[in-house]
Batch of 2 targets.
Target 1
Amino acid sequence: MYLPGLGRGLKSLALALLISNPAGAIDLTITDEQSIKDAASTTTYAMMTYYKGNETGHIPGAFASKWWEGSALFLALLQYWYFTGDTTYNEELSVGLQWQSGDDGDYMPSNYSSYLGNDDQMFWGLAAMTAAELQFADVTDGFSWLSLAQGVYNTQINRWDTTACDGGMRWQIWPYESGYTMKNAISNGGLFQLAARLARYTNDASYATWAKKIWNWSLSSPLLSNSTWNVADSTNMDDDCSTQGDTQWSYNYGTYMMGAAYMYNYTNGSSEWLSAVNGLMNKTFDHFFPTSNGGIFEEVVCEPSESCNDNEILFKGLVSSWLSFTALLVPSTYSTILPYLQTSAKAAALSCTGHNNNTCGVRWYKSEYDGWIGMEEQISATNIFVANMIQFNTSGPVTATTGGNSTSNPTQGENDTSSSTTQQSKITTGDRAGAGILTVVFVVGWVGLMGFTVFGG
Ligand SMILES: *[C@@H]1O[C@H](CO)[C@@H](O)[C@H](O)[C@H]1NC(C)=O
Ligand SMILES: *[C@@H]1O[C@H](CO)[C@@H](O)[C@H](O)[C@H]1NC(C)=O
Ligand SMILES: *[C@@H]1O[C@H](CO)[C@@H](O)[C@H](O)[C@H]1NC(C)=O
Ligand SMILES: *[C@@H]1O[C@H](CO)[C@@H](O)[C@H](O)[C@H]1NC(C)=O
Ligand SMILES: *[C@@H]1O[C@H](CO)[C@@H](O)[C@H](O)[C@H]1NC(C)=O
Ligand SMILES: *[C@@H]1O[C@H](CO)[C@@H](O)[C@H](O)[C@H]1NC(C)=O
Ligand SMILES: *[C@@H]1O[C@H](CO)[C@@H](O)[C@H](O)[C@H]1NC(C)=O
Ligand SMILES: *[C@@H]1O[C@H](CO)[C@@H](O)[C@H](O)[C@H]1NC(C)=O
Ligand SMILES: *[C@@H]1O[C@H](CO)[C@@H](O)[C@H](O)[C@H]1NC(C)=O
Ligand SMILES: *[C@@H]1O[C@H](CO)[C@@H](O)[C@H](O)[C@H]1NC(C)=O
Ligand SMILES: *[C@@H]1O[C@H](CO)[C@@H](O)[C@H](O)[C@H]1NC(C)=O
């Protein structure tokens, strides 16, 4: 069981004494292809030392107390493989992505389905979508990557909630979960992104209609503004979404920006989506790449106070990837985005000098190792290095008509009613009591991890 902050704080203290020798530095030349590949190889190796899913007695793709992080790991691995050509981890990647997909192929695996949130499931859907778009080969016995993304999409649009706020995705799926009565940016912006990507890959307009619907709803709520381009973290159903929890997290901006980039590309260059991309991108750079810290990517809410939890350490990595995809999908943004990715990657490399073995820290803007250590730090460093590979490969994500051959199943997940709104009203008292016990366990181990929205908002 993980106690956010405490474990890291103690380790950080204990290890602070060991960090002064920078002998294990990653020597990164940001304009050199091989140099970037080498840096990514180093951080990916360290990242995979935390992954036990292919060892006897362990479950592929499973991280017991932080299930969604498996998707963040596999997202990083997919891009690592695609941009470097290194296939070392592909088997584990394929097996893990498949193993956690659940009986219905929608990332509601029974071991986790009773306490995961819409955002957790959505991130696995994005990983499957990325696999399809980067032409990671489908498995011969199992679900295709595209159908897994469709499975997540189908189960989630069935949960679209009109009981308050005239629409929107709840944060959580189950009434007993803390956050069930909230609607938040990452769940809505995440599904918006997934819908936009499905629209572009399949050229099926029904996905685009949903993307637009989620976008419209987000604008009508306090979560997203198309005048200031502020993205708030959450809003509460108890007051019909009239107030906002305005904590500023980079991934909330990033996911709406990424979705808008796909819509821009899908629409063959609509000016409406272009201004959305530019607005969100500008705000992201202004806010999370502060010039006062050298224009280096910084999760500003938690880094200066060293209070980032595992989730929050991953946000920069996710957004680095999304910026690199945006640069390819919206070519006019490329020359703006690339210098930011370069500056941050150089700083990240300087942070990867811990323990004489290239351990990466959290605060890239320190340009030195800061004493933190963990899988999340390694994932984010991998992502910022790999994001810089767009200098050498501008092919971008494919579609079904430009080389993507992942098999489509537009109805996947539709039979999984285990968590649709209709089913929820049928939960019996007995079920709830049992579930409540699980929740007590969940509260101890998970709310601290996943509660960043609640506590942040
Ligand atoms: C680097 O050293 C630290 C401290 O000994 C250790 O915890 C970590 O696993 C090492 N990383 C690698 C990739 O060997
Ligand atoms: C798990 O995969 C790693 C490569 O990432 C490999 O070094 C290791 O031997 C594998 N373990 C087993 C038990 O297959
Ligand atoms: C980009 O990378 C992909 C995957 O490795 C490869 O198929 C493609 O040929 C590359 N494109 C260029 C222009 O190098
Ligand atoms: C679910 O958990 C059980 C018990 O730990 C394990 O044996 C099984 O492989 C898990 N199933 C999946 C799909 O992860
Ligand atoms: C689909 O494309 C991938 C990548 O190009 C290739 O490895 C795979 O064999 C193809 N699958 C089929 C069924 O054609
Ligand atoms: C989104 O809102 C615009 C007006 O701002 C409207 O024209 C459009 O039909 C709406 N689309 C959907 C799918 O709700
Ligand atoms: C901003 O959103 C509102 C509400 O959806 C819409 O009516 C308006 O046209 C949008 N403005 C721009 C500049 O897109
Ligand atoms: C974009 O252009 C392509 C090629 O002309 C066309 O097939 C597609 O339908 C267009 N997409 C939209 C949303 O108009
Ligand atoms: C984004 O910033 C650029 C450069 O500062 C500016 O030219 C552009 O108008 C801005 N776009 C939006 C939508 O705010
Ligand atoms: C869409 O993205 C591709 C890269 O995948 C790019 O080549 C193309 O120019 C983009 N389309 C538009 C309209 O910008
Ligand atoms: C859903 O259930 C129906 C009826 O049992 C079946 O015909 C259909 O193939 C199922 N769809 C999926 C995607 O499993």
Target 2
Amino acid sequence: MSSPSKDQENPLRDHMVKNSHTNSWSLPKTMICFIVLVSLPYVFYSLILLYSSDTPNHEPVIRIHRQHSRNKVLVPTHVPSSDDTEDKTSLKHVVFGIGASSSTWEHRRNYIRTWWRPNVTRGHVWLDKPVKNSSIDHLLPPIKVSGDTSKFQYKNPIGTRDAIRISRIVSESFRLGLKDVRWFVMGDDDTVFFLDNLARVLSKYDHNEYYYIGYPSESHLQNLAFYYGMGFGGGGFAISYALAKALEKIQDECLHRNPSLYGSDERIFACMMELGVPLTKHPGFHQLDIYGDLSGILMAHPVAPILSLHHLDLIEPVFPKMDRVKAVKRLMVPMKLDSAGLIQQSICYCKTRSWTVSVSWGYAVQIYRGIIAAKEMSVPARTFIDWNFGDEDVYFSFNTRPVSTNPCQKPFVYYLSNALFNLNLNRTASEYIRHQESNSDCDWKIADPSRIKRIEVYKKPDPHLWDKPPRRNCCRILPTKKKGTMVVDVGVCREGEIAGL
Ligand SMILES: *[C@@H]1O[C@H](CO)[C@@H](O)[C@H](O)[C@H]1NC(C)=O
Ligand SMILES: *[C@@H]1O[C@H](CO)[C@@H](O)[C@H](O)[C@H]1NC(C)=O
Ligand SMILES: *[C@@H]1O[C@H](CO)[C@@H](O)[C@H](O)[C@H]1NC(C)=O
């Protein structure tokens, strides 16, 4: 499927080659959203190629292109970073402790398969009791059965005793005495981690000091029921080696002192408070104490790397109308191409048509009628409700904006369908296809975006994005002659370039 002739037919590649030959890759002098309504033959290649039989179930594939000339270079799945020095903290220094249960393991292990890297990631799944022939699967973490907790009292009226054994995963992992460990990362069996981003974040902190890194809940009431300073366990949290060592010494006594707490994360929090170590809050851990469609959060992610997603069984699939596990797998395709840039928002405008375009790289693109200020676009739309079924802004621990009922203000949403690395152009190319039916019952005198059926986004991988102070990328709408297509370039903002008109 990567024969040279087919490569040349690839529309994503084709477009970019043409542009680079004609030197039209730089920002056009006037930002014209150029759409010619003339059908051109290569338009149809896109549909044929991207939905041909080699992509069953619309599973995206990363096409590996051979360079025609000289050396046959294959694209690395992970874009190498240049300063992988021996001493820098990386994934190999991280030990995961996944809190799981024998009753849900059969199903939830499918989420773990989406992010676990056999022979690369270290750690264990901790179960309450053994499950049948579980150690056979080499694509999953090895299984451990938690130590007996019957000597501990559990006095919480709502929760379950599992909280005790799950909170002890940190100590039990520490006691295994594994070599060269710098961080212990806890998560649930329905948590998906974005490993490269997580390793990058942890590499900024000294594991020889005491660090407890995580994030509270999206739900204000959940943070009141527990603590704003608690790392919620499903979103995941990291404990430095030095702190895990200190925790291990006191944890069992601490558990005896706190029998009436609810969950495992609250028990960790209680012990951290005894040790006097506050939570280092790092955005990007997503507990997702919400129901419904999380797209509002992913379309306006904080300017921070995405680290985890939790509650994948409770929220709607990450991509609509898709199997939940397959949807997560789809997200892993752009993640492998440019993990640092995954889900990062950039905002730009089509001046001639008065549209606002918001790219959430590797996930979705939105087009809004009208020019909406960046300060509005950077606030998540409430496409979801809170854990307590609240749908107003006061239920959340962050700013949200309502989803408008006015058809003119409804965005056109395009979800990722495919992503690949284009060697000739040295850029990622990702494609987004319109999701919902057109909402054209709008009487505004603004061009109707429904003519745009697909969006192509080009972006250079930027593994050092988070080595710099946080800043959004900029996007630019490029001229194209492809019918029904918008072409967008995403990258570091140039001198003086802003998201504004
Ligand atoms: C992991 O490594 C072992 C031995 O080093 C090898 O036998 C096994 O096939 C590897 N598994 C995967 C999934 O790469
Ligand atoms: C596990 O055991 C069951 C029956 O006990 C069997 O049907 C299944 O194929 C086994 N799974 C693996 C991965 O060996
Ligand atoms: C591709 O771009 C990277 C920087 O983004 C650069 O370091 C590398 O040399 C480029 N490779 C080629 C073949 O142009």
